[in-house]
Design a protein that fits this description.
The structure is a homodimer. Chain A has a single domain, classed as Rossmann fold (3-Layer(aba) Sandwich), CATH 3.40.50.2020. Chain A contains five helices and eleven strands; from the N terminus they run H-E-E-E-H-E-H-E-E-E-E-H-E-H-E-E. In chain A, helix 2 packs across helix 3. Chains A and B meet through strand 3, helix 2, helix 3 and strand 5 of A and strand 3, helix 2, helix 3 and strand 5 of B. Strand 3 of chain A pairs antiparallel with strand 5 of chain B. Chains A, B: It comes from Fructilactobacillus sanfranciscensis (strain TMW 1.1304). Chains A, B: It catalyses: XMP + diphosphate = xanthine + 5-phospho-alpha-D-ribose 1-diphosphate. Chains A, B: Belongs to the purine/pyrimidine phosphoribosyltransferase family. Xpt subfamily. Chains A, B: Pathway: Purine metabolism; XMP biosynthesis via salvage pathway; XMP from xanthine: step 1/1.
Chain lengths: ~190, ~190
């Protein structure tokens, strides 16, 4: 998505530790019109797959996910984060290790919002090691929901999450793929 | 907003402790089309005030805020939550006591995203005691930003937050006002 790449080039800041800071339009300040077009792009790519629900994780996934749900005319469910494991009969949960924060989070979704009748589209803002996405897959699997696709706003292709998901056979669309952040420069794949 | 009241009546669940659970369309599962119309309603009411930015708090405020930002064509900034006080030169922060969770949270916004040139519209999903809204007001005041209005999806008028904010002179629009949850019944104001 060329518009997204342009915004990343203009506003993204590279920090030590292969961190790309995009908090001027994606995960602190949000550009709603850009999110709208991101939602339309995901909806166009994943159309005709019978998707019934969009899944994401709070907080940064919500804006792109809700715009995708708007374009696809389906509900959005965001997994909630918890410091401790949530073991209740009425929730599906998964552990998600945060490489940035160096500790495990737990995420959970109430069972009533995800069933074996659902075909889900997973949406997230970033894909690096893929921990959050794997957590959502684990939750969808526990509900026996089909996973019809995975839509990522920004993928770091030099980290293993994207390759792992494609090797597992998932239909992954990343709107911007970053091949390297070396020398504080954003280098896109292809 | 009649559509919202209808959805609350149909899907809202009253739990002990004056809790109204609306997680089927607002704060766990989200109805994107309803959020879109909520955003349009806020944008219509607060138009012509020169608003430059929508402010909210993660996570449940993001969906209505981003739809409001879309309709008003302005950026959205969501305050991030932290268990501990964030004291850094580059952030404004405030303490927010959670009556539901019985402990204080801290919220913060990076200074670069809020300045004295801004006229902000505060958006949140719930207004009860008003703690989250007061936290956002404190942050906006610290930035010397003008507060042009406060838009709330669901206000519990039997708790003091709304009255407090109106007494302070703020322009508050609540799309659904709940006067009582007694006997597990949702009773709207007026």
């Amino acid at each position: 998505m060329e518009e997204l790449k342009t915004v990343i080039k203009e506003q993204g800041k590279v920090l030590p530790g292969n961190i790309l800071k995009v908090n001027s339009f994606l995960n602190h300040q949000i550009d709603p019109k850009l999110m709208y077009r991101i939602g339309q792009t995901f909806a166009e790519y994943f159309k005709n797959l019978g998707i019934t629900k969009v899944l994401t994780v709070e907080a940064s996934g919500i804006a792109p996910a809700v715009m995708t749900g708007l374009a696809m005319e389906v509900p959005v469910v965001f997994a909630r984060k918890s410091k401790s494991l949530v073991v209740k009969n009425d929730v599906y949960s998964a552990e998600v290790y945060s490489y940035t924060k160096k500790f495990p989070n737990h995420i959970y979704i109430e069972k009533q919002f995800l069933t074996s009748d659902d075909k889900v589209l997973i949406i997230d803002d970033f894909l690096a090691n893929g921990e959050a996405t794997k957590g959502l897959i684990k939750i969808a699997d526990a509900a026996n929901a089909d996973i019809a696709g995975i839509g990522i706003v920004i993928e770091k292709t030099f980290q293993p999450g994207g390759q792992y998901l494609r090797d597992q056979g998932y239909n992954v669309l990343s709107l911007a793929q970053i091949a390297s952040l070396e020398n504080n420069q954003v280098k896109f794949a292809n």
